[in-house]
Write a structure and sequence with these properties.
Blueprint: H1 5-15, E1 41-45, E2 48-51, E3 56-59, H2 74-84, H3 95-107, E4 113-117, H4 120-135, E5 139-143, H5 150-153, H6 164-167, E6 170-172, H7 178-187, E7 190-195, H8 207-217, E8 221-225, H9 237-242, E9 248-251, E10 262-266, H10 268-271, H11 288-301, H12 306-327, E11 334-339, E12 342-347, H13 355-368, E13 371-372, E14 376-378, H14 385-408
Parallel strand pairs: 3-13, 5-6, 5-7, 7-8, 8-9
Antiparallel strand pairs: 1-2, 2-3, 4-10, 9-10, 11-12, 12-14
This protein binds pyridoxal-5'-phosphate (PLP).
The site of pyridoxal-5'-phosphate has 13 residues, from helix 4.
């Protein structure tokens, strides 16, 4: 059995001085079985991470998206170290900034112009502000998660602390349902339609084209939130993959293999409003170390076959999950969603077990087997068939344990520590 002694000590200490002891909700200890999972990471190497107790895991969380090439990549490290020797944030721009803006305009179909910020939330917020300034309208329609800022989190169920007046400006529309979008576009004048272009099992045929033409028919700017889809499925994002070019796009997460950088990009006439005072400006927007990391990362992502490899490994895993759900007759409590490159499981309850009971059995087993994964997996360029086989073997065992819990109608004989207890829970069982 693995020991998590040092992780627990640090967790106890940090909890006294920092809520959740993690700066991202879904990286906190509450997303794992307390006492039976690591909380603190010592280092990463390719697709492996080592925790502070010396345990090694295959990492299928990839920092929730940023790690696209693999941890501790020598080429990215080399570029970073070279730039660290010069400056990080400077009084003037770095050469990297000009080169990276050019590079994004070369590889992203909608990008004629680019503005850099830091988090995905900054990029989606900048895109929405540009759309509002351009159209002179205020309302926004969104589909997906777009970060922590008021305009978007206000329209979610987690909107405590957001003024009501702000909440009312944004409404959700249903993915893959054009008539729902059109109905909402008719209700009031909309500045922006923003969506994650890849959700659940991806867009139905013609859906993204339909969203684009409806947005334009009603005078709204179309924004793709590619903070997750960007750099994960294809170099040019979902817009390249599905051949639909939005007016604006937000990128973040995977651009620099873990270094903090994001960007809003798109039509020049929209971005050029910044020159007329539409306010998108941050102290660290031009921070050069992350830009050097982004240039090195993209040069690796550009290598022939990079995305074929990711998609091949992902297909092996997704197909394997589908087979295992069938083998263990778990179709009523475990489902799979996502495209090959980024996919995974959703859990439901049954009998007296809640979905979190089922997820806890899954999580404990995967961690026991040395696989760090949430419900969904992220892949980076260093995952191979070998790690995919370990993942599938562990999943086989996790499903055996879930079947057993269902038969016992209890998880108590199976769980050794706490249960998965996320801050945000689904209402359904
Ligand atoms: C689709 C999407 N957009 C925006 C964001 C916000 O990015 P960040 O957390 O970097 O602000 C996220 C974060 O998970 C995301 O998944």
């Amino acid at each position: 059995m693995k020991s998590y002694k040092r992780s627990e000590e640090l967790l106890e200490r940090e909890l006294k001085v920092s809520p959740l002891a993690a700066q991202t909700f879904s990286k906190s200890y509450r997303y794992f079985c307390r006492g039976e999972a690591p909380s603190f990471m010592e280092r990463g190497e390719g697709c492996y991470i080592y925790d502070v107790d010396g345990n090694r895991f295959i990492d299928y969380m990839c920092a929730l998206g940023p790690i696209t090439v693999g941890y501790n990549d020598p080429m990215v490290n080399g570029a970073v170290i070279k730039q660290v020797g010069k400056f990080a944030a400077g009084s003037l721009q770095s050469e990297c900034e000009a080169l990276l803006a050019e590079k994004l305009c070369e590889i992203i179909p909608c990008a004629e112009s680019v503005r850099f910020v830091k988090n995905g939330s900054d990029a989606t917020t900048a895109a929405v502000r540009l759309a509002r300034a351009y159209t002179g309208r205020e309302a926004v329609l969104m589909s997906g998660y777009h970060g922590m800022n008021d305009w978007s989190i206000g329209a979610s169920e987690n909107n405590r602390g957001v003024p009501k007046a702000v909440c009312e400006l944004t409404k959700n529309f249903r993915y893959n349902d054009l008539s729902d979008l059109e109905e909402k576009l008719r209700e009031r004048e909309v500045a922006a339609v923003i969506l994650e272009p890849i959700q659940s099992n991806g867009p139905k045929d013609g859906y993204l084209e339909g969203v684009k033409s409806l947005a334009h028919k009603y005078g709204a700017v179309l924004i793709f939130d590619e903070v997750v889809s960007g750099f994960h499925y294809a170099l040019g994002g979902a817009q390249e993959m599905f051949g639909v070019t939005p007016d604006l796009v937000a990128f973040g997460k995977g651009m620099a293999n873990g270094y903090p950088i994001s960007a809003v990009a798109g039509k020049r006439e929209l971005l050029s409003q910044i020159e007329q005072g539409v306010f998108i400006s941050t102290t660290f927007g031009g921070e050069s170390v992350s830009m050097a990391a982004a240039l090195a990362t993209i040069s690796i992502l550009e290598r022939p076959g990079f995305y074929d490899h990711i998609n091949k490994i992902g297909k092996m895993m997704r197909d394997g999950i589908v087979r295992l759900i069938d083998k263990h007759r778990l179709g009523d409590v475990v489902s799979v969603s996502g495209l090959d490159a980024h996919s995974g499981l959703a859990f439901d309850g049954k009998g007296s077990l809640s979905y979190l009971d089922v997820q806890s059995v899954y999580s404990q087993t995967m961690i026991d087997r040395g696989v760090l994964v949430f419900a969904l997996y992220f892949l980076n360029g260093s995952h191979t068939e070998k790690e995919a086989e370990v993942y599938l073997d562990a999943t086989d065992e996790a499903f055996t344990n879930i079947r057993r819990a269902l038969e016992l109608d209890s998880v108590e004989p199976l769980l050794r520590g706490g249960k998965v207890d996320p801050v945000f829970k689904r209402n359904i069982k």
